[in-house]
Design brief:
- The protein is an alpha+beta fold.
- Helices cover about 50% and strands about 20% of the residues.
- It folds into four domains: about 110 residues, no CATH class; about 110 residues, PAS domain (Beta-Lactamase, 2-Layer Sandwich), CATH 3.30.450; about 190 residues, Heat Shock Protein 90 (2-Layer Sandwich); about 160 residues, Chemotaxis protein chec (3-Layer(aba) Sandwich).
- Strands 13, 15, 16, 17, 18, 20 and 21 form a seven-stranded antiparallel beta sheet that branches. A five-stranded mixed beta sheet has the order 7-8-9-11-10. A four-stranded antiparallel beta sheet has the order 3-6-5-4.
């Protein structure tokens, strides 16, 4: 601050000379550090001042407008005044004085700047402190939300080591702190194969540069795992590594869905129970007949042991066969407890077969006595009686269902089942005035048992499979009634007498089965026995005796044409006529009624093994409901295409028999090279073609016309292209949905004999044995329940 006295003196002075004199006197009186020595009188100063004025008229303004600064009890003018004004005022004074003034003035200036910077830094620090406080508040709030979200959050990089930061739920899920742990071991603690597979897959995804391929590999990651009995849903999210934006990391979101899964199981159980109720109403006669036969089987079981104790193998084979048959019958009736019980029982008996064959008679009885054969059936019947009442099942020939009961059932169907399933079952409920197609066969079965008993033929059971669908029975009734002639011929000409069967190594009890299937366009009825088979030489002999054909005509006939002779009117191989057979009109009646409904037939027979009559009946004026697609309708065209492709295009021999046998598991084995092709649309899933190094390399070389392939990349590209060709050609054969299926580009993955396991999906697999090795074609799909078209298993 400027001295007050000096300020007033400057402001109240009008004379320019006086201002300069006062200013000089001020410096001298204050012992100024300027140490002015050359000014002995005021005239010199006045003269100098006058000169200054003449030189620069703005001098006084500079003096007035500049502030004098006090430092250590001395007063200084700013550096501009020191260089310009003092020099003009004082004249030619010592240069050392100017240097000293300059240095001190600069020090003052720097200190002022330093003070301003200090103030600015203080403000910046305060702002940074507030920003940091806000950031910590938000971070703590985010951590609080994550820790209370009932989900586990963890991150990991390409080394698959879990970062130390994770949410509390991870501790609840894994029962341990997961930081710094190896992720594959945490997810699959007791499965080395799965650890190895997910390790390779995760590293592949994190290092994959092609952003289009990365999601395809991610689709192979597990979406559910089992940890200590808990079902955990997994969601792998790709994120940037904040320490290096050029690298990717994974954030794994884990959700315990054990309760949700149990809830879904409860809903499914209620749905299954409801379906069982509907089936019991719609297929009442089938149900009661099957229950009756099953009870007879259980009650006669111990008698069968006594009867067959000398031939344990025959008893055991018969036991398994009956259990398998009843399992299928009860499954068709949707019996929620009985069918699974019989399936598990069949599995256990098969596993214990060698042990049981060595048991004594008493040990075998003790083993079977521990099995409660009726418990599951009683549980199902109790559920049915609780809904339909006990009186519902006390009637044999009369069925009464009250309208309000049906409406209540329809409401439950609509509330519990998806729209598609509910619509089908609702339609079935409203068709209760109609009867199932199989109903027409019950009298035929009873009649066949009767004539077999009269003839002395032992028939264990006439198996009736299928036919529970509803259709216009009047349209088919005349034809179905003629099938009694087929069954009668099985008794009279097919099934051997007990002594004859034993002599040729057969069971003394003959078997007759009736299978009824419905396709979109036709009904297929097959009647089959395990009797003598048809002797074509006997057919020729009888045809000649009846003068139906000449020797030359008969010799030129193929097997089918010879079998057709049986349907000629008045043709019979019986030596005598009775009230049952021998007139030769029965088979011609079958053919006549079959032609009335534009049907067709096929006869298959083998001497000593039996005969099968297959009738195809066109469906007339029947609305085909939307349906689920059987997995065989997908896999058979694919397998056939592969066989033809390998044989015709690549000249590779197929060693498998033509029999198609599909396996269904919740796991999938991957060999050295694997090509994967995703399907979308009405069918969703992955086709997977896998083989070891030798067979795939040979396939690739064959595809390239013998050109040698050296790198894995070349082999992968060829295998992927082969799968693309196979599936592309197979889709054309899919059942009416070829235009509703889309295929993505194939991609490859390498592994060392890895097994992938699925919790919520099925893997349908078929091994193709070739001259070069084994190829495995698989189709992996989720279980469908709420779609119009899905995959339906056996």
């Amino acid at each position: 601050m400027i001295d007050t006295k000096l300020t007033l003196s400057l402001l109240n002075t009008n004379s320019e000379i006086e201002i300069l004199e006062n200013l000089l006197n001020y410096f001298k009186s204050e012992n100024s550090i300027l140490n002015i020595k050359t000014y002995s009188n005021s005239e010199d100063l006045i003269s100098s001042s006058l000169n200054i004025k003449k030189i620069d008229n703005t001098l006084l303004n500079i003096v007035k407008n500049n502030t004098v600064t006090k430092l250590d009890n001395n007063f200084f003018l700013p550096i501009k005044l020191s260089h310009s004004v003092l020099f003009m005022i004082l004249g030619d004074f010592d240069k050392e004085c100017l240097v000293e003034v300059k240095e001190l003035s600069e020090a003052v200036y720097k200190k002022n700047i330093s003070n301003e910077v200090h103030k600015d830094l203080k403000l910046v620090k305060e702002k940074l402190s507030k920003v940091e406080s806000d950031y910590m508040d938000r971070t703590n709030q985010m951590i609080y939300l994550l820790n209370h979200s009932s989900q586990g959050f963890l991150t990991f990089g390409v080394n698959l080591i879990i970062d130390d930061e994770s949410s509390y739920e991870c501790m609840n899920i894994f029962n341990t702190f997961v930081g710094s742990r190896y992720l594959p071991e945490i997810l699959f603690p007791n499965d080395i194969e799965q650890q190895d597979f997910i390790k390779k897959l995760l590293i592949k995804i994190l290092t994959e540069k092609n952003t289009k391929t990365r999601p395809v590999y991610k689709s192979l990651l597990p979406n559910q795992i089992k940890i200590d009995g808990k079902t955990i849903k997994c969601n792998f999210l790709t994120i940037f590594d904040f320490t290096d934006q050029r690298k990717n990391k994974f954030m794994l979101v884990l959700t315990d869905i054990t309760k949700e899964i149990q809830h879904q199981k409860d809903i499914k159980q209620e749905r299954d129970t409801l379906t069982m109720v509907v089936k019991s109403v719609v297929d009442y006669n089938d149900l009661m007949y099957t229950i009756k036969q099953y009870n007879l089987f259980v009650e006669s079981l111990y008698k069968e042991i006594d009867f067959c104790h000398k031939n344990r193998n025959r008893f055991f084979s018969k036991l398994l066969r009956k259990i398998h048959t009843f399992k299928g019958n009860f499954a068709q009736l949707s019996m929620v407890n009985t069918a699974p019980f019989l399936h598990n029982l069949e599995t256990k008996l098969s596993q214990d077969e060698e042990l049981l064959l060595d048991y004594s008679l008493n040990q075998l009885k003790e083993y079977l006595e521990k099995i409660d054969f009726k418990k599951a059936l009683n549980e199902d019947m109790e559920s049915l009686e609780n809904i339909l009442s006990k009186s519902f099942f006390s009637q044999e020939s009369k069925l009464i269902v009250y309208k309000d009961r049906l409406e209540e059932l329809v409401k439950r169907v609509k509330s519990l089942l998806p729209q598609f399933e509910g619509k089908i079952i609702e339609d079935e409920i409203r068709k209760l005035a109609r009867k199932p197609f199989s109903k027409n066969f019950y009298p035929l079965i009873s009649y066949t048992h009767k004539i077999a008993e009269e003839r002395g033929i032992l028939i264990e059971q006439i198996y009736l499979d299928g036919g529970t669908f509803f259709i216009d029975l009047e349209y088919y009734s005349k034809f179905v009634k003629t099938l009694v002639h087929i069954l009668r011929n099985s008794v009279y000409h097919g099934i051997e007498f007990p002594e004859e069967r034993l002599e040729v190594g057969k069971d003394e009890f003959g078997n007759i089965s009736i299978s009824i299937k419905k396709n979109p366009d036709e009904i297929i009825v097959e009647i089959k026995d395990d009797g003598r088979g048809i002797d074509t030489n006997l057919l020729k002999k009888k045809a000649l005796e009846l003068s139906l054909y000449t020797v030359e005509e008969l010799e030129n006939m193929n097997k089918k044409e010879l079998f057709d002779i049986m349907f000629v009117d008045r043709f019979t191989t019986s030596e005598s006529v009775n009230d049952i057979a021998g007139r030769g009109v029965g088979m011609s009646a079958v053919k006549d009624e079959l032609e009335e409904i534009n049907g067709s037939y096929i006869v298959e027979s083998e001497l000593g093994k039996g005969t099968s009559f297959i009738f195809r009946l066109p469906i007339k004026n029947e609305k085909i409901l939307d349906r689920k697609i059987h997995i065989n309708e997908i896999m058979i065209p694919v397998v056939d295409t592969i066989r033809n492709y390998l044989k015709n295009e690549l000249s590779i021999d197929i060693l498998n028999s033509e029999n198609f046998k599909l396996s269904s598991t919740n796991s999938l084995k991957l060999d050295r090279y694997t090509a994967i092709l995703r399907l979308s649309g009405v069918i969703q899933g992955n086709f997977i073609l896998s083989g070891d190094q030798e067979v795939v390399k040979d396939l690739a070389i064959s595809y390239m016309g013998g050109e040698e392939l050296y790198s894995d990349d070349e082999i992968e590209l060829v295998l992927a292209e082969q799968l693309n060709i196979i599936i592309g050609n197979s889709i054309k054969k899919f059942p009416g949905i070829e235009n509703l299926v889309d295929i993505d580009s194939p991609f490859m993955i390498q592994s060392d004999s890895t097994i992938i396991k699925y919790l919520d999906s099925n893997s349908y697999n078929y091994d193709i044995n070739t001259s070069k090795g084994v190829l495995r074609i698989s189709f992996v799909t989720s279980n469908y329940s709420d779609v119009l078209i899905g995959i339906e298993e056996e």
